[in-house]
Design brief:
- The protein is an alpha/beta fold.
- Helices cover 39% and strands 25% of the residues.
- The protein has one domain: Ribokinase (UDP-N-acetylmuramoyl-L-alanine:D-glutamate ligase, 3-Layer(aba) Sandwich), CATH 3.40.1190.20.
- Helix 6 packs across helix 7.
- Keywords: Transferase.
C-alpha cells in the first residue's frame, strides 16, 4: 500500500485529534455574552398565488420556534460538553419566556440571563414554502422581524458586563456575539476584551460591520465573505488578503475567519499565510446559524488550548454540519460534529491511496 503523504497524514491526525477532543467531556468554561433572538419557522405548501396580489399562498404544515443568535452558541456549547456562562438580556414577554424555557429544557445554565420587563424579545419569523410536487425544494418566501423600539438600558448592560468580567477567572474562552441589539456595548466590549487579554483568555468576536470598533484587541473575528468584500470596496483595497491584513492590523486581532458558505472558510492570521479550507458538502441546504456554529467551534478549540489553525478546521467542519442540515436545524451538536470530523479524516485517507 502506498505511503500516505506526510502533509496529508498530519491533516488526518489533526482531524482525529479534534474528534477526540469533541468526544471528551471538557471541564473548561466559556464566557458567552450576546444578543438573543427567537426564531420562528413556518413550513408549508405554496401551490398557488393570491388572487389579488403576486404573492404565494402558503398552506402551513408545520411550525417550530427556536432560541437563536447567541442562544444558538449557548445551546451548541452545552451539547458539546462545555460549561457555559451565558450573559444575555430577555424581554419580559411571552417570547422571552419561550426562549428561557427552551434553554432550560436543553440544559443551558440561565442563571446569568437578565430580564428587562419593559423590553420586547427580538423575534424573526421565516416562512418556507414549496410546490407539493417538489417536496425537496423548500425555499424562503418571507421573513419579518419584531423588536423593541426601546434601547436596552445602559445600567443593565453595565451590570451584565461586570458579572461577565467577574466570571473570567478559570474560563477557557470568551465569545462576544454581537447582533447589534444592545447587549454588547462599546464600553462593555472594551472592558471585557481588556480583562480577558490580561487573564490570557482568548476572545472570539462575531460583529456586525458597523460594530468593528467593539472588537479591538480580540483574538479572532468572524466575517462572511460578502462582508469582507464590502470592506475591501469601502477601503479601496486590492484583494481579500490585503483587506484581511489591513483590518487585522487596525483592530489588533490575531486572526480573521472568513465564512464562505459552500466555498468553505479561510483563516487569515497576523503572522502566516492564509489557510483555505474547502467545503465538501455536496448540496448545501441552508445558511442559518452558520456564524454561531463557527463561533461555537472556535470556542471549543481555543477553550481547550488549541491553535487558531485547529480552530479553523473545527469551524469548517461545524459549518458543513449546518450547511447539510434541513431548514430550522441550526444548532451544532456533538454527535453530528464528531461524525463529520470522522468522515473528513476518512475521505482524506482514501483519496490519498
Amino acid at each position: 500500500m502506498p505511503v500516505v503523504d506526510e502533509v496529508v497524514q498530519a491533516e488526518i491526525e489533526m482531524l482525529r485529534s479534534l474528534k477526540r477532543m469533541v468526544d471528551s467531556p471538557s471541564s473548561n468554561s466559556v464566557i458567552l455574552m450576546g444578543d438573543v433572538i427567537l426564531d420562528r419557522y413556518f413550513h408549508g405548501w405554496a401551490n398557488h398565488l393570491n388572487a389579488f396580489a403576486p404573492a404565494p399562498v402558503v398552506k402551513v404544515m408545520r411550525t417550530n420556534e427556536s432560541a437563536g443568535a447567541a442562544a444558538h452558541i449557548a445551546r451548541s456549547l452545552t451539547d458539546l460538553g462545555m460549561k457555559v456562562r451565558f450573559f444575555a438580556i430577555l424581554g419580559g414577554d411571552e417570547n422571552g419566556h419561550i426562549v428561557a424555557q427552551q434553554l432550560h429544557e436543553e440544559g443551558v445554565d440561565t442563571s446569568d440571563i437578565r430580564v428587562a420587563a419593559h423590553l420586547s424579545t427580538v423575534a424573526k419569523t421565516r416562512i418556507y414554502g414549496s410546490r407539493e410536487s417538489l417536496i425537496d425544494r423548500y425555499q424562503l418566501l418571507l421573513q419579518f422581524d419584531e423588536e423593541s423600539q426601546e434601547e436596552v438600558p445602559e445600567s443593565i448592560v453595565q451590570r451584565l458586563t461586570d458579572s461577565a468580567i467577574e466570571a473570567l477567572p478559570g474560563a477557557g474562552a470568551v465569545v462576544l456575539s454581537d447582533y447589534g441589539k444592545g447587549v454588547v456595548s462599546d464600553t462593555g466590549a472594551k472592558r471585557i476584551i481588556t480583562a480577558a487579554k490580561a487573564a490570557k483568555v482568548p476572545v472570539i468576536c462575531d460583529p456586525k460591520l458597523t460594530g468593528l470598533h467593539r472588537t479591538v484587541g480580540a483574538t479572532v473575528a468572524l466575517f462572511e465573505i460578502r462582508g469582507l468584500e464590502l470592506l475591501r470596496r469601502r477601503n479601496n483595497l486590492n484583494d481579500a488578503e490585503e483587506t484581511a491584513a489591513h483590518f487585522i492590523a487596525e483592530n489588533d486581532w490575531q486572526g480573521m475567519l472568513v465564512l464562505g458558505g459552500e466555498h468553505g472558510v479561510t483563516l487569515y492570521q497576523k503572522d502566516g499565510s492564509p489557510l483555505n479550507l474547502p467545503c465538501l458538502v455536496d448540496a448545501p441546504m441552508q445558511l442559518i446559524g452558520l456564524h454561531d456554529a463557527a463561533a461555537s467551534a472556535l470556542a471549543v478549540a481555543l477553550g481547550n488550548g488549541r491553535s487558531l489553525a485547529e480552530g479553523a478546521r473545527l469551524a469548517n467542519a461545524a459549518c458543513e454540519c449546518i450547511l447539510a442540515a434541513e431548514a430550522s436545524r441550526e444548532v451544532l451538536d456533538r454527535k453530528t460534529l464528531s461524525t463529520r470530523l470522522d468522515e473528513l479524516a476518512w475521505q482524506m485517507q482514501i483519496s490519498d491511496r
